Amino acid sequence: SELVRMGADITVSGNHAIVRGRKTLQGAPVMATDLRASASLVVAGLAAQGLTEIHRVYHLDRGYANLVEKLSALGARIERKPA
């Protein structure tokens, strides 16, 4: 899981996932696989210490208009690099 690469403590067993809270996540290069995964990686990246680079972020375009601008307006330090 990409969230595990950021330091999340997640165990999947069958149809269940056990998520244990962590004080901090660490920025990491991660890859988005779909719309919901992309959104969760953006939120995790905003909460993480350090730089998070999300590859294949184009999935967000299907469900979130102007996301970078909206999050920036809220104070997020986020940028989108051209492909």
Index terms:
83 residues, two-stranded parallel ribbon
If you had to describe this structure to a student in words, what would you say it looks like?
There is one protein chain. The chain is globular, with a radius of gyration of 13 Å. The protein contains three helices and four strands. It has one domain. The relative contact order is 0.18. By secondary structure, the protein is α+β, with helices and mostly antiparallel strands. The longest helix is centred in the middle third of the chain and has 13 residues, at 35-47.
Q: What is the number of beta strands?
A: 4
Count of the separate structural domains: 1
| Sheet with most strands | 2 strands, antiparallel
What would you call the shape?
Answer: globular
Mean pLDDT: 94
The rounded Rg comes to 13 Å
Strand content: 15-25%
Please give a quick description of this structure:
By secondary structure, the chain is of the alpha+beta class. It contains three helices and four strands. It has helices spanning about 1-5, 35-45, 65-75, and strands spanning about 10-15, 15-20, 30, 55.
